[in-house]
Amino acid sequence: MSQSEEKETAKKPEVNSKLEKSVVSVNPKAVCHACKHLYRDPKILPCLHTFCSDCIAQLEPFSGSPRLRSGEVSVTVLCPDCDSEVDIPQSGPAGLSTDHLALDEVFLETLVRDGPLGCDLCGEGDAESRCEVCCVNLCEFCSQAHRRQKRTASHSVQALEDLKARGRLCRPVLCSLHPGQELRLFCQPCDLPVCLECAATLHRDHHCCPTRDVIDRHGDRIRELVSVCLRPRLERLEESLQKVETSQENLKVQVDATANEIRAFARGYASAVEAHCLSLLRRLEELRVQRRNHLHLQRAQLHQALLDVRGGVEFAERLLSCGSEAEILSAKGVTLKRLTSLAKSGYNPHPATVAPDDGSSICFMPKEPAGEVEGYPVVGAVNSKVVDISRCTIEGEGLHQGREGQPGHFTLVCRDSSGEQMARGGEHVLVSIVHKEKKSCKVETTIDDKSDGTYSVSFTPDEPGAYSVWVCVKAQHVKGSPFILNVQRKFRRHTGKFHCCSFCSSGGAKEARCGCPGTMPGRFKGCGHGHKGHPGKPHWSCCGSTVEKSECLPASVLAAVSPRSHLRTAEL
Fold first, then answer.
1. Are 28 and 62 in contact (CB under 8 A)?
2. Which residue, 435, 429, 413, is CA-closest to 484?
3. Which residue in 240, 224, 272, 496 sits closest to 378, CA to CA?
4. Which pLDDT score is estimated for 551?
5. Which domains are present in the chain?
6. CA–centroid distance for 384 within its chain
7. Given the DSSP bridges, would you call strands 483-488 and 401-403 parallel, antiparallel or unpaired?
8. Angstrom distance (rounded) from CA 63 to CA 65
9. Does the CA dihedral 318-324-328-330 come out positive or negative?
10. Cis ω on the peptide bond leading into residue 189 (within 30° of 0)?
11. Which of 160, 182, 510, 562 has its CA 20 to 30 A from that of 545?
C-alpha cells in the first residue's frame, strides 16, 4: 500500500480539528445542546436526543449501582434535554448508535461558514472537493491523486461548491471496523448494518442480506408508528398545547383587565371615602358651631338670670337688715313686685337638672350605613342625638299582664327630644320587677340591646300577684315608671271531657259523676238530659264549666259548687 493510501485509510470520518472550538452555529441541528459546540462523534440516546460522545461520558449516573438490562450491565443517566432515565451500555457511549444525520449537519455547517476548509490529506492547500466515501476534504492536487489511485478511483468526489449549493449532504455510511467499506448489508440476527468484510468474517454464520431488501420492511414499520400512532397524537398534543397557551394568554389578559378594574374601583372608592370623610368633618363642624352657640346662649341667659336674682336678693336683704319700718313699708310694693316676678320666672333651672351640652352626645358610628357617594356605598355617620327620658316609650303587653311560669316580654324604645328613635344603643338601662306584697320576691330580667335604640326585656314570674316594674335610663325613670304588672296564676287545663251528660258519655254507667251538680233518678250519680242540676248545655265533666275554651276551676271552687268527689267520665 502506498504512503498516500495509508494516510487516507488511517483517517477516520470525523470533522476537522478546527471545528472543536466553541461556535455559535447558524444551524441548531449541528450543535450539541450540552456543550454548545459542533457535534464531535454524536451519539443517539434511547430517548432519541443526540449529544457528543464526550458529553455523554461526563453525565453522572442516576442510579447508585449498575443494573442488568437485556443481559448487559448498564448505567442509568438523566438526559440533559428531557430528564428521562436512559441506560448507557457497559461499553460506554461507544456502544450507542452514531447520529450520521448530525454528522451531515456538521459538515454542511462547515460549508456555509466563512473561510476555506483545509485539505485533510496534505493539510497545506485549501479544500475544493470532498470524497463522499472516505469523508475527507481534498485540495485540487490530492483530489487528482485520489482519482488516480486504483482503490479510490471509483469513489464519488463532489465539489464543495456543489455540495454547498445543494443544501443537503448525501453520503455513504462507512464501517467503523473496516474504514472505506460502506454498510451495504444487514445482519438480521444481530439487527445491525454491516459491510462486506464484516459479513465474511464476524457474521459469516448469520443471515445477511442487502440493505435494499429489508429497508422497506423496517422503514414501513417506522412509518406506520409515525403515521398511525404518533402523528395523530402529535397533532392532538399540539392542539392541546395551543389551547393551553391560548388559555394562558386569555388568563393573563383577563387578570390584567380585572386588575385594572380593581385599581380603578379602588381609586374611585378612595375618592368616595375621602369625599365622605370631608362631608363627615363638615357635619361635625356644623354640630360644633351649633352646640357652641347654644351653650353661649345658655350661658348668657344663666348669667343674666343670676344677675337679676342676685340683685333682687341683695336689695331685699339690705332693705330688711338696714331699713327702718317706714323705709321697709314704703319700698314694700316695688320690692314684692320684683321678687314675685323673679320667683315666677320661667327660667329657673336647678343645678341637679341642668345638663350642659358638652358634646358627649356627639359620636361617630363607623358601621352605620350612609348611602352612596359618587355611586359607591359608604358607611359611617356622625350621631348627635341625645336620649330624652321623658320621650322614651314602652311597647308590648308583657309590661302589664303576665302569667305565672310563662315568659313575658316588652320593649323599651329610647327617643331623642324630637321623639325620633335613637339609631344606636349603649345606654345604661335598668329594669327591676318586685312583688308588691312579697318584697323579697324579685324577678330576674334579661335586657338585650338591639343597637338601634331599642332594648328587649324578658322575664318569667314565678308567683302570681301584682308587681312593680321600674324602668330607668341613666338612673332616671321613664314616663309612667314604676308600672303595675298583674301576674295571673298558672293556666289550669281541663282534665275531663266536654260532654252533654255523664249518662251518655259513660254509656249509662250509674257510678259516673260529673263536675256539674246534676243527678238522675234510679240511683245514677251523674247528670242526664232534663234532670235536676243539669246546666242545659254541654259542659266539662271535671269542673262543670259550660265554656269549652276556658280555664278549669280550682279545687276550692269545685268544693264550693259540689262538695262531693268527681269521677272522670268515659270519652265520647
1. no
2. 435
3. 272
4. 81
5. 3-188 (3.30.40.10), 389-488 (2.60.40.10), 494-572 (no CATH)
6. 39
7. parallel
8. 6
9. negative
10. no
11. 510
